[in-house]
Amino acid sequence: ACGYHGLLRISEIANNSMRGLYKTYDHQAQKYRWWLEVVGKGQKLRSIPVNQHLLKAIMDYRNYLKLPIEPSLDEQEPLIKSLKTGQSLSTRRINQLIKAITEEAAKYFE
Fold this sequence. Notes:
With about 110 residues, the chain is α+β, with helices and mostly antiparallel strands. The chain contains 4 helices and 3 strands, in the order ααβββαα. The longest helix is centred in the last third of the chain and has 17 residues, at about 90-105.
C-alpha cells in the first residue's frame, strides 16, 4: 500500500520509520492532512501527502501490530517489519513480495 498509494520508492519504505508520519491542520479545508516525511534518494528529506486509502492501510497495520493509532515522535517502528525478527524488511525482500503479489494478481486477469 505504501508504494502504490504513497508513491514511495522501495528503499524509502525499507529505510524509514513510522515516526515520519504526522498530521497538520489545513485551515482552508478545516481538516487535518496526514504526511509521511522520509529520507530518500540522495539523502534528501521529502514530505509525501498520505491519502485516505494509505492512511487506512497504515492505521489497520498499526492496529494489527497492537500499536497506538498515531505514532509518537520518537517511535522507531519500521514502516514495514518482519513479523519474525521485528526488523525492517530489506529492499530486496519488499521487491520479492511486490513481485509475488503482482504475479498472483495477474492470474485473475488472464
